[in-house]
Automatic annotation (TrEMBL), chain B:
Residues 3-83, 138-222 form the Cysteine-rich domain. The lineage of its organism: Bacteria, Bacillati, Actinomycetota, Actinomycetes, Kitasatosporales. This is (Fe-S)-binding protein. InterPro entries: Cys_rich_dom (IPR004017). GO terms for cellular component: cytosol. Pfam families: CCG.
Length: 492, 251
């Protein structure tokens, strides 16, 4: 995945900053609570939501089970429609292919449709290193790009910014990249949108190469689909002479018919709209209409390894609606950047450690970035049991175990820094396995209760920094039960 | 009816009052309650922290201790969810790992017989008015595992509404997690504390005297936040409210 985030600290450290940044918390709280309520309404309107969710899950599972077959089918269909298919095993290979394709056109500028896949592989940075400027045309992406910032949400990458901050970024940076912001720009949404529109229009009309991702790829026809709200994506898909689409291999569906399900569940889950304003589909090339050259770059980048894991593979069903981010109480407080990946929130916490492995500090801490409250699972339109995968990945981190790395089965050792915890878990299990031991411990604790502090030393200090521990009771329940014969004799 | 009380290790050690309340309440409703001494912990903390290997023997032990009873009642949504939702999953995982059906077969008998307290009252005993008296203003926090894993729904609220003298007020953002999450409270203390604080503030905004829930772990986290804030709000387990009567009111 993108090198941008390498060397990130573990989640708790990154989240510490965010929790104490009141502007950020205010922005996030406002944004997530608004969309949360809207989504709930949009979903409640559909009497068959449960069936749609189940259908989405099944279509995705079926496709993943036969991914090899459908990918071959897709390649044939794209070629038959006049496109070229390229296969990239990892981010570097994908970046090399795209850079080569852009250079072959003789251009040094490209316009981009908002795409998670190109962010995942760090394409913009790779292009820049080769002297190619990539312009983001999605409004929120533009804000992030102009602000020399990182996206913090799947759908609304600039969710961490408020209007005032956006105005300042536009006024300061637009001239560096093209048409400057109008004089005296205020922070009203209409003025900000107009400034962006004028700035972007120039880019659209000049661009010879467009780069996009896709929400779906239809195997039977070789059609790619992008859904969006602004229409800027459609401009990039239709105006340039060459179109390069970079898409993860899991984005495939077998037939057009399957889109019926997702075109209902995706907009309601993501923007709480009944239908997204723009649904663009393109199939290869058509004479004298739209791009005359079309390349599809299919990226693996850890996906087939993820597919090999029985529990974790369900993360590949994700349609990137971001509903799980918007309901997540941890995301709301920690902010998107703490997740150290273009995929933040609950889905990021299970996807990144699978795509990248659990080797780094940030990746091994992500499975713990959840209270397992289950709100993410409840809203997920393809029923990804995120808590289940989180616990599965915690097991991988804490205990090690078999994983697939670049197609090879390997056995991971437990991650560093878990020895004390492991020892404590074993000791607790041993005590719990011997009720007599537990009882002795309880009694000892009760007898010495006057000496117990209400704050803790060591790793427990973090807990007691903001909360008091409960006072120990004089007598554990089991002693009371025995003393009173279940409350039948003496006392209460 | 002879049922076993599964009190959970947290309640046994830290909240014996909740256990006594369950015994008092069920006895009042004509249930013969037993507390099998061999019980300890369901293994949830181990399982959820990534120590499934350590959780498995605890699950087996749970099954050995409880399998002969007609019903197993627990005053904890999350430990109830551990047995009902995660024991079957542990069985499936063992099978997927080529270890056969032994674990699944061992755990199967206790799974459908395990009930969270409010579920047991409403679904098995068929009562919503348990004859309780508790003249206080109360707000109810559903807790995540009770709400989403067990689907307790309106049961706890219906029980509370039937309590004489009790005024139930809606908690804003009731569905939101309190931030406890077991080891999450330690591993991600900042986020956890921020979540707890918001929950307590929401509860305070209702003007209630009591924040009630069906899980002492969540209440421990919230109670710890409350004492730090020196608020007048106090945490009370639903079993203690339901056990309270005019003759023997809960202090
Ligand atoms: S995991 Fe589910 S809810 Fe989250 S972004 Fe993916 S599809 Fe949406």
């Amino acid at each position: 995945m993108s090198g941008t985030y390498l060397g990130m600290p573990a989640f708790p450290k990154a989240a510490h900053e965010a929790v104490h940044n009141t502007t950020l918390r205010g922005n996030l709280r406002h944004a997530t609570h608004t969309i949360r309520a809207k989504r709930a309404n949009a979903v409640a309107e559909m009497s068959d939501w449960a069936e749609l969710r189940e259908a989405g899950k099944q279509i995705k599972d079926h496709t993943l089970r036969h991914l090899d077959r459908y990918l071959v089918r897709l390649e044939e269909s794209v070629q038959a429609a006049g496109g070229t298919v390229h296969w990239a095993a990892d981010a570097d290979e994908a970046n090399r292919i795209v850079t080569y394709l852009v250079k072959a056109t003789g251009e040094s500028e490209v316009v981009k449709v908002k795409s998670m896949a190109t962010q995942e592989i760090g394409l913009n940075e790779a292009l820049e290193a080769e002297g190619i400027a990539a312009y983001e045309t999605d409004l929120a992406e533009l804000i992030v790009q102009l602000g020399k910032d990182r996206p913090s949400h799947i759908l609304v990458p600039a969710i961490h910014r408020n209007r005032g901050e956006i105005r300042d970024i536009f006024a300061r940076e637009m001239s560096e990249w093209g048409r400057p912001a109008p004089e005296g720009l205020t922070d009203t949404p209409a003025e900000l949108a107009e400034a962006a529109r004028l700035h972007l229009r120039e880019k659209f009309l000049r661009a010879k190469v467009g780069i996009s991702g896709a929400n779906f790829m239809v195997a039977e026809t070789g059609t790619l689909v992008v859904v969006e709200s602004e229409g800027n994506g459609r401009m990039c898909l239709t105006l340039p002479e060459t179109l390069i689409s970079v898409v993860g291999i899991e984005k495939i569906v077998p037939t057009w018919r399957d889109l019926e399900v997702f075109l209902q569940t995706l907009p309601r889950s993501s923007t709480a709209e009944r239908m997204n304003p723009y649904t663009s589909t393109w199939t290869g090339t058509t004479d004298e209409d739209g791009p005359q050259t079309f390349h599809l770059v299919l990226i693996d980048n850890g996906r087939t390894d993820t597919l090999a894991d029985e529990v974790g593979r369900q993360a590949l069903r994700c349609i990137r609606c971001s509903a799980c981010l918007n309901v997540c109480p941890v995301y709301e407080r920690a902010g998107g950047h703490a997740y150290g990946s273009v995929y933040p929130g609950p889905i990021g916490a299970i996807l990144s450690p699978q795509l990248r492995g659990t080797g780094s500090e940030i990746d091994s801490s992500l499975p713990y970035a959840s209270s397992l409250c289950g709100a993410c699972y409840e809203v997920c339109p393809v029923a990804i049991d995120i808590p289940e995968v989180l616990v599965h990945l915690r097991e991988r981190v804490a205990q090690g175990g078999p994983v697939t790395e670049r197609g090879d089965k390997v056995v991971l050792k437990p991650a560093k820094g878990h020895a004390a915890e492991r020892a404590a878990m074993r000791a607790a299990r041993w005590a719990f396995g011997h009720p007599g031991v537990l009882r002795t411990g309880q009694r000892l604790a009760s007898r010495t209760r006057r000496f117990h502090p209400r704050t803790l030393p060591g790793p427990g200090r973090a807990w007691s920094a903001s909360r008091d521990l409960p006072a120990l009771p004089a007598e554990p329940f089991r002693d009371w039960w025995q003393r009173t014969n279940g409350g039948k004799e003496t006392g209460k | 009816m002879r049922v076993a009380l599964f009190l959970t290790c947290v309640n046994d050690t830290l909240y014996p009052d909740t256990g006594r309340a369950v015994v008092k309440l069920l006895t009042r409703l004509g249930v013969d309650v037993d507390f099998p001494m061999g019980q300890t912990c369901c293994g949830q903390a181990h399982y959820n922290t990534g120590y499934r290997q350590e959780a498995e023997p605890l699950a087996r032990q749970f099954s050995d201790v409880f399998r002969e009873y007609e019903a197993i009642v627990t005053p904890s949504g999350s430990c109830g969810a551990m047995v009902r939702e995660l024991y079957p999953r542990m069985g499936e995982r063992a099978r997927a790992e080529g270890r056969g059906d032994t674990l699944a077969r061992t755990l199967a008998p206790v799974v459908p017989k395990t009930y969270e307290l409010t579920e047991f009252l409403v679904d098995v005993l068929g009562v919503t008015d348990v004859g309780a008296y508790y003249p206080h203003k109360v707000t109810y926090h559903p807790t995540c595992h009770g709400l989403r894993s067990l689907g307790l729904g309106e049961r706890p609220r219906r029980l509370l509404q039937a309590v004489k003298g009790l005024e139930l007020v809606e908690l804003p953002g009731a569905d939101e997690c309190c931030g406890f999450g077991g080891t999450f409270a330690v591993k991600n203390a900042d986020v956890s504390a921020a979540m707890g604080l918001d929950k307590v503030r929401n509860a305070e905004s209702t003007g209630a005297e009591v924040l009630c829930a069906a899980d002492n772990s969540c209440l421990m986290h919230l109670g710890g936040t409350m004492t730090r804030l020196r608020t007048d709000l106090r945490p009370v387990h639903i079993a203690e409210i339901l056990a309270s009567t005019e003759e023997e009111p809960l202090k």
